[in-house]
């Protein structure tokens, strides 16, 4: 823990896990949608479901979806701002058993009609992890430059994508690949030391079998 | 390997002695070498934390309202209104500010988690109240906050600052001990005195449970911040008088870690024991649950 993690983060209260972490999950979900969200169906589980009201977890999640960071005071009035901006919120509590006590599922529809569903957990101290995107298992913490591909599982895709990154002199710090089944949908998550420029993203996008590419900045 | 890396408070003190400088200077030098940022930038970030300290004190003092649950809010104002019967001006002001910041946190204003949101009132209250009373120049305040942060980083490394891991001793206990160290420095204490203030304060928070009512950062957290702000001042005063902790600072941290491990899970932020499971605590939790369902 660095000195600015001890004296920090700067955040809207009252809880780093239930408020600041929730805001960051919402922000990450918005990043993953890559569109202005118009509708969000939010389901909270575990401790989030038990104490969301008093911790402002609901307001924090909506603030994140609106693009506000965890120290943005507009978090307090996020529901009113969402209504103003035409973001419809549906909020549910679930008593379903989950792996982590601070879990939330967000199903979003963007202005262009694009749909995305993410599952996020708040790990404490404001740290988060996105564990599912559209049902595919992932692990994203929002702390590094990240490139995500959704592709058809087949030989050579990883090598082609990393070759393109090598051409762009992009250093990979961490990389994981998930797939639902052999020859089915696969997700590749590549964390990099520097942002991946647009031309490199386009080259990766052009690889056969890659359906979509999303890049995320650190939160 | 870093030149100014410290894993224990003993390391930190030894480095300061070797370099013939202050603890805060070592903390700054290590932050500069590990972040690869300029010293001015690192200092500016810490100075901006002080601005948020002030902002959250002001927010808490100005807003007389209650939190969403209705359990806390308005006590900073109440304490500030009354001339103190027992406390001196500094201790009284520190208690008021600690209530203000903790209430601001519960009411969703901006705060600095220091080291956590639940314990966010103690360090700002003690430092800002003391700065007002002693007319402390701002650079001295920034230095003292680096010292507190460096000490907190050692606690985090060798024990924990999370209530779910170590109970409230890890959160409010660490915050109070950091505040004691900071204010001892502001009052002119040397390196050893600063660490003694830390140890004297930390020792007297050991074993403290994290048993929040209805799982919220409100009861007992808000008022505990105020009481611990005063305790931090008492510990610093003792250290400044030359009183030493029989158990050295690093061993106090080790004891805190051990007590955290031995502490039952019911007393570590799960709200399954202690104040959370009193008759009143249970009734409040039931009322809030019912309100949420409606």
UniProtKB/TrEMBL annotation, chain A:
Family that this chain belongs to: Belongs to the iron-sulfur dependent L-serine dehydratase family.
Name of the gene this protein is made from: sdaAB
Catalytically driven reaction(s): L-serine = pyruvate + NH4(+)
Record's keyword annotation contains 4Fe-4S: yes
Keyword field contains Nucleotide-binding: no
InterPro entries xrefs: ACT-like_dom_sf, ACT_dom, ASB_dom_sf, Fe-S_L-Ser, Fe-S_L-Ser_bsu, Ser_deHydtase_bsu
Pfam families hit by this protein: ACT, SDH_beta
Pathway entry: Carbohydrate biosynthesis; gluconeogenesis
Organism per entry: Megasphaera intestinihominis
Database matches in NCBIfam families: sda_beta
Protein name: L-serine deaminase
Required cofactor names: [4Fe-4S] cluster
Any one GO molecular function term: L-serine ammonia-lyase activity
Keywords of this entry: 4Fe-4S, Gluconeogenesis, Iron, Iron-sulfur, Lyase, Metal-binding
Domain of life: Bacteria
Gene3D superfamilies hit by this protein: 3.30.70.260, D-3-phosphoglycerate dehydrogenase, domain 3
Domain ACT: 146-219
TrEMBL record, chain B:
Family designation: Belongs to the iron-sulfur dependent L-serine dehydratase family.
Catalytic activity field: L-serine = pyruvate + NH4(+)
Source domain of life: Bacteria
Pfam family, one: SDH_alpha
Organism expressing this protein natively: Megasphaera intestinihominis
Protein name (Swiss-Prot/TrEMBL): L-serine dehydratase
Location of the Serine dehydratase-like alpha subunit domain: 19-276
Segments traversing the membrane: none
Chain coiled-coil ranges: none
UniProt keywords, alphabetically: 4Fe-4S, Gluconeogenesis, Iron, Iron-sulfur, Lyase, Metal-binding
GO MF entry, a single one: L-serine ammonia-lyase activity
Record pathway: Carbohydrate biosynthesis; gluconeogenesis
Cofactor(s) needed for function: [4Fe-4S] cluster
């Amino acid at each position: 823990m660095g000195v600015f993690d001890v004296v920090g983060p700067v955040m809207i209260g009252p809880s780093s896990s239930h408020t600041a972490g929730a805001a960051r999950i919402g922000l990450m979900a918005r990043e993953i949608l890559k569109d202005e969200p118009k509708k969000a169906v939010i389901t909270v589980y575990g401790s989030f479901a038990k104490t969301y009201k008093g911790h402002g977890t609901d307001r924090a999640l909506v603030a994140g979806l609106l693009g506000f960071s965890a120290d943005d005071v507009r978090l307090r009035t996020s529901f009113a701002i969402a209504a103003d901006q035409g973001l419809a919120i549906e909020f549910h509590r679930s008593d379903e058993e989950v792996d982590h006590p601070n879990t939330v599922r967000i199903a979003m529809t963007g202005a262009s009609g694009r749909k995305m569903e993410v599952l996020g957990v708040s790990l404490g101290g404001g740290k988060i992890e996105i564990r599912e995107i559209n049902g595919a298992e992932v692990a994203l913490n929002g702390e590094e430059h990240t490139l995500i591909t959704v592709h058809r599982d087949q030989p050579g895709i990883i090598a082609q994508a990393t070759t393109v990154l090598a051409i762009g002199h992009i250093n990979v710090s961490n990389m994981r690949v998930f797939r639902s089944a052999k020859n089915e949908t696969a997700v590749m998550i590549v964390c990099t030391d520097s942002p991946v420029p647009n031309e490199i993203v386009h080259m990766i996008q052009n690889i056969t079998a890659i359906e979509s590419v999303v890049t995320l900045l650190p939160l | 390997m870093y030149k100014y890396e410290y894993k224990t408070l003993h390391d930190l003190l030894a480095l300061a002695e070797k370099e013939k400088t202050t603890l805060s200077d070592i903390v700054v030098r290590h932050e500069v070498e590990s972040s690869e940022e300029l010293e001015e930038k690192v200092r500016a970030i810490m100075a901006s934390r002080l601005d948020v300290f002030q902002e959250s004190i002001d927010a808490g003092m100005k807003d007389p309202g209650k939190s969403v649950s209705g359990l806390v809010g308005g006590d900073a104002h109440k304490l500030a209104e009354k001339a103190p019967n027992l406390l001196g001006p500094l201790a009284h002001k520190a208690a008021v500010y600690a209530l203000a910041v903790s209430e601001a946190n519960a009411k969703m204003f901006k705060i600095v988690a220091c080291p956590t949101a639940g314990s966010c009132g103690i360090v700002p209250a003690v430092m800002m109240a003391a700065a007002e009373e002693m007319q402390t120049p701002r650079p001295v305040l920034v230095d003292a906050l680096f010292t507190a942060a460096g000490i907190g980083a050692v606690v985090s490394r060798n024990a924990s600052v999370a209530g779910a891991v170590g109970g409230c001793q890890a959160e409010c206990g660490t915050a109070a001990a950091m505040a004691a160290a900071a204010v001892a420095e502001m009052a002119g204490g040397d390196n050893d005195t600063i660490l003694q203030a830390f140890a004297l304060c930390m020792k007297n928070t050991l074993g403290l449970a994290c048993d929040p009512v209805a799982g919220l950062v409100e009861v007992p957290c808000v008022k505990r911040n105020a009481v611990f702000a005063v305790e931090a001042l008492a510990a610093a005063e003792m250290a400044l008088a030359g009183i030493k902790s029989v158990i050295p600072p690093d061993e106090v941290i080790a004891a805190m870690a051990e007590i955290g491990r031995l502490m039952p899970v019911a007393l570590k932020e799960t709200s399954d024991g202690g104040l959370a499971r009193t008759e009143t605590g249970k009734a409040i939790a039931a009322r809030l649950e019912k309100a949420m369902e409606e």
